Amino acid sequence: MKTIIVAPLLVVVLLAVYLTPACSKSPAFHVPTVTRGSRAFGTCERHASSRRLMAPEGGPPTAKRRMPHGEAWNSRLEELILYREEHGHCNVPHGQGKLGYWVSFQRQRRNKGKLSRERIDRLDGVGFDWDPLEGEWLARFEELTAYRAAHGDCNVNTRTGSPLGKWVKRQRLSYSKGRIRSEDHIRMLESIGFTWNVFDEEWESRFDELKEYKALHGNCDVQTSAEKLGPWVSTQRQLYKEGMLSHERIERLESIGFAWDFFEARWYARFDELIMYREEHGNCNVNTNTGDPLGYWVSAQRKAYKKGSMSKDRINLLESVGFRWELSRQRNYVSWRLEERWKTRYAELVRYLTEHGDCNVPHRRDSLGTWVVTQRGTRKKGSMSQYRTDYLNCIGFAWEIERGSWRPGRHRPDVESIARIIEVERPSPEMISSISSASTEGLKTRVEVGEAVADALQGYLNKIDGHGLNVTTT
């Protein structure tokens, strides 16, 4: 009985041993544990989710069935389309799974000329980017163009860490190292006013600040104490004086009314105020005792004129609007008398010039000769006021005499200046009509002296014009 039972079990074991090598090659097959009394037969179970096929009888199982090449390519293209719908582009990162490797492989094959025209067209049809770096560059360029449209320049702040700022910084760095991708990129950037030098960027930024200052204050006279704009403005003026500022920047600054001399600009601003005052009041006699800025400026002009520190151009401008260097009401009695005495002597000298043709009055002749010598000595010491110097210069007064002779070729009269002095000194009809018995001695003397100076100068002009003297202005 035992022999009959053992024989079938032995057959089962031998059968299991025979089938084990074939089944062990595939994880889908297994040999159940054989125990006493079990109904163990070698079986092969197919996993539900596996695509493997059962091995044919008497042979090993087949390998995984591969998809045809064209079908696999189409499948990846469908994945790429889904990726594009989700991300808005086809630039799958190289290391992002099989799709990333496939995308990179397509670019490589196209670069080598091994990708068919049909596949190139299909990839183009879904917006495939054959050069992702170029695509990124163009996208940033479009951002920069939009920035320029909004702000008027390409001066993106590179310190905030924004993507566009970082990109702008990379462009400048690549350009400085000669590594910019193409000449087209250079031309495109320059076409929208992009600056390669970071210092150019700072200049543009400060220039924009100056334009804003002008819009707010009406001028470009920034105080040097201003935080950043003030020192920048001073630097532009210094560079201009040294001839180190480009013509293009000079033109741009001047286009917004920038003055290269700050004090000159302030002077002209006050001069414009004086003209407005004259149009309203009919004269330039601004009250200097009220603390008004214009009054203070007018007083400063008279002081500068007396000290001889005022330029000829400024003197001419002020006199052209009827500005008076001396106002009798603003002088004390002593100074007023001294000025009128000086002008009386001046009128005598002009009459002498008209009669003799020069100002070389003999020293021993009379008091006029002594006065002439005194004028030369006063000027030599540097203590003569500017207006007195101008009065004498305009008639060709010789400050240094050689052998007691006047040299017409060197000391010529200034007809224009003489005409202006006549206009200044000649009393107005209103002033003459206001003189009455009740008038003060000062007003009467002012009118008399003014008429004497104006008449003497007019007589001199008439003489030189009648003799056909070749008169040139200084």
TrEMBL record:
Residues 1-24 form the signal peptide. Residues 71-128, 136-194, 200-258, 264-323, 339-397 form the Helicase-associated domain. Coiled coil: none annotated. Keywords: Signal. InterPro entries: Helicase_assoc. It comes from the Eukaryota. The keyword Cytoplasm does not apply. This is Helicase-associated domain-containing protein.
